[in-house]
Amino acid sequence: MVSRPATTGGPVVVAVDFGASSIRVCRVDLGTRPPAVEVVHRHAHRPVADGAGHLRWDWDRLVAEMDAGLAAAVARGPVASIGVDTWGVDYGLLDERGELVAPPFSYRDDRTAGYDQVVDAVGGPAALYATTGVQLQAFNTIFQVAAHDGGELARARHLVLLPELLVHHLTGAILAERPSAGTTGLVDITTGDWSADLAAAVGLDPVLLPPIAAAGERAGEWRGIPVHLVGGHDTASAVVAMGAAPGPRSAFVSAGTWLLVGRERAAPDLGEAARAGNFTNEIGALGGVRFLKNLAGAWLFEGCRPAWGDPPVADLLAAAATVDGELPLLDVTDERFLHPSDMLAEVTAALGLAIDAVPALVVAAIVASQAAGTAAVLDRLGDVADVAVFGGGGRSALYRRSLAERTGLPVVQGPVEATALGNALVQGIALGRYADLADARAHLARATVGAAASATAATAGDR
After folding, report:
1. Which one of 108, 160, 228, 370 has the minimum C-beta count within 10 Å?
2. Cα distance between residue 114 and residue 120, in whole Å
3. Has residue 463 got a pLDDT over 70?
4. How far apart are CA 182 and CA 89, in angstroms?
């Protein structure tokens, strides 16, 4: 018998979810329990090199794919609201007519390689962390702006983060949503406002920064349908849907292109240990912070696949699960994997393997490295009782099993489409369908928490 969500009556919303390698447009029925997610449009993408060799997003194509997805979504029936999330840190510059000055740069472009000089110019790493609570990464918006072409900046009248750039396309509104703004390294995490001093220090006129609004606010409408701000940064939306009732000692892994490993906290941790560990304090979609660390995720083996003839990820993981014995490990926090010219060469060199090593061995070593890196972060977090793994990478039984074996913790598989689902839950709160975050999460499916020993389940579910 097929299990179907219970119907309780409620609205259908559209979640536009842009990942850094795939975009999805989903209809989410908030009238079922748990909410039913239907992906109506999907498009794989990558950054492309411009004439100067810099990586930019094919923005016109991505916007066109979103429009096609929205058309497909409304063709299937009434829609009560639309919400948009994307990856963080990247932005577009709008001119005086509200049009893009140029396609947005990708955070994987290497123009920010000298970001340490910018850190020194704004007072050093300790002072920067005390203001923003954001981990040092070469691609943080503050460093991208410092490296941005002066001619493009001179033509700009607004700097808009990518989620709100899509909202602008739909509604004409120019604003910033709190979690997406929080990824920039330009927000004072104590006040919640833009830091005019930091903006000025990197040559950005603070007047280019739009007003910051909260998730759940109505930004405008598209063809008569309300468009609500959600957790604009995709991790913020994903963590909203991390589980039906996460406990105070629950940790999470948002598993996709990146592995975002952390815990929800009521307030930021700006202490020296947090800074030295390069943890970041990301502003939560509905309050609080996500205290986490970035690790390289599916990007590692996705980058190797072309050299192997693009075999399905499911096949690679299934083969990797058959590899026995001790595996070499690489550092999944190493910036060398951000955008190498040859990912397979970079990965195999880091593992001490020949470049022609069988794919199963390379993938097994990558997954083991990801589990080891995740376990190290969980150890730094301390007092963790269980771990929820959600997003596309959460389907990997090999990763979940390896993580459980390394930590001795129960590992829960959360929603695969967690980002779209969290996006929709915030819309549900805005529409009055749910009272608050706890009420919204209570409508999610309750995952069974298995003991660590049970995580040795077969890998047939790997995707």
Report:
1. 108
2. 11
3. no
4. 9
From residue 310, give the alpha-carbon distance in Å to each of 303, 306, 316, 388, 462: 10, 5, 10, 29, 17
Residues making up the chain, counted from first to last: 463
Give bridge partners of residue 212 from the DSSP assignment: 176
Report yes or no: 21 and 62 within 8 Å, Cβ to Cβ.
no
Report d(CA 4, CA 391) in Å as an integer.
21
> Would residue 102 count as lying in a domain?
yes
Please enumerate in sequence order all residues whose Cβ is within 8 A of that of 433, keeping only pairs 6 or more positions apart, or say none: 10, 11, 30
Question: What angle do the packed helices 359-381 and 313-320 form, to 10 degrees?
Answer: 80
Mean pLDDT of the chain: 93
DSSP-based three-state secondary structure for 411: strand
In a domain, 363, yes or no: no
Residue 35 forms part of a structural domain: yes
- pLDDT of 334 reads 94
**Residues 268-295, mean pLDDT to the nearest whole number:** 96
Q: 347: part of which helix (H) or strand (E)?
A: helix 343-351
**333 touches 348 (CB < 8 A):** no
Strands (E), 53-193: 55-56, 81-85, 91-94, 158-161, 176-177
Domain annotation covers residue 212: yes
209-246 pLDDT, tens digit per residue, is 999 999 999 999 999 999 999 999 999 999 999 988 89
pTM > 0.85: yes
**Residue 383, token pair as written in the block:** 């007092």
Tell me which amino acid residue 279 is: F
Catalytic residue positions? 234
Token pair of 427, please? 């819309």
Q: In the structure, what pLDDT confidence band is assigned to residue 6 with cuts at 50, 70 and 90?
A: low
* Pairing mode of beta strands 48-49, 55-56: antiparallel
Lookup: tokens for 366: 């990558």
Which CATH number belongs to the domain containing residue 33 in this structure?
3.30.420.40
> Does the structure show a pLDDT above 50 at 403?
yes
pLDDT at 457: 35
- pLDDT value for 90: 98
Q: How far apart are alpha carbons 175 and 211 in whole angstroms?
A: 5
What residue type is 350 in one-letter code? A
For the chain, the helix, strand and coil percentages under 3-state DSSP, each to the nearest 5: 40, 20, 40
Residue 130, domain extent: 6-234
Number of structural domains found in the chain = 1
Shortest CA distance to 309 belongs to which of 337, 341, 344, 340? 344
**Amino acid type, 1:** M
- What is the CA 409 to chain-centroid distance, rounded? 24
- Taking the C-alpha atoms of residue 256 and residue 417, their distance in angstroms, rounded to an integer, is 10
